[in-house]
Amino acid sequence: MRTALRFSRKQLGIPYALFCALFVVFPLVLIVIYAFTDAAGHFTFANFLDFFSRSANIHVLFTSLGLAVLTTAICLIIAYPVAYILARSSMNKNGVYLLLFILPMWINFVLRTAAMKELLFILDGLGLYSVADDYFLSTLIGMVYDYLPFTVLPIYTVLIKLDKNLIEASEDLGANKVQTFIKTTLPLSLPGIVSAITMVFLPTTTSYVISDTLGNSKVTIIGKLIENQFNIGTADSWHTGSAISLILLVFIFLTMFFTGKFQENSSPRGGGLW
Q1: What is the pLDDT of residues 96-148, one digit of tens each?
Q2: Alpha carbon of 114 to those of 61, 88, 109: distances in Å?
Q3: From CA 152, how far away is CA 144, in angstroms rounded?
Q4: Category of 127 on φ-ψ map: left (φ > 0), alpha (ψ -120 to 50) or beta
Q5: 3-state secondary structure at position 213
Q6: Is 70 exposed, middle or buried (0-12, 13-18, 19+ CB in 10 A)?
Q7: pTM of the model
Q8: Second CATH level (architecture) for the domain 50-265
Q9: Domain extents for the chain?
Q10: What does the pLDDT look like over 147-164, one tens digit per residue?
């Protein structure tokens, strides 16, 4: 008789643990080692001091954070009403409408960026927009265009699963449409908003393909700065690049920590009626 193969949860988790060790933990350990050592292998904080002592690096850091904040804010302003309308539309239509928004996610990232560049140049040729006047704005438009679907989807997923009985109960208690939205719908949709912020804010600080393509390499973000350091090939360039990467990781962890805290502190049952 053949005996069926059975694996425990620990055994099934071994491939995942090996993957994390090789492709997550090991590279992070290397980054930390390079960040806190010099070319001779001696322990030092010089890599971090060198980064913060250069005004150009500080400008790149604030440009990256500013671009990420603006992109996230604009995406949320556009995505929430869209997700709300999709969630409240009929089941036969919302699937088609949602497909139109998430379809760009299936297209190659570089191809989408190149298409937006061509569109901006067409508008430039028609005199409706000047690409050369503001490369930062062109980069911002490209960021919003590329990451908007990643904002719509998590918000829509939360809104479509909201218990309609809670909304009806709010209206039965005398709340109007605006009060119901502010006190019930918005608090209950906070998990989707937090997920959308995480999916947009973090990648925009490193997506230098968009800034290179639409910003004509005039807009430098911290991801591009890291790439430049690793491509220089000098004795200390990898150490400097690792230090910048570690600084970026700190900002990423802080963002995830505060968004997680915000989600924990938000009431899962909505706000009070009055």
Answers
A1: 777 777 777 777 788 888 888 888 888 888 888 877 778 889 899 999 998 99
A2: 25, 34, 9
A3: 12
A4: left
A5: helix
A6: middle
A7: 0.82
A8: Orthogonal Bundle (1.10)
A9: 50-265
A10: 998 899 899 989 888 888
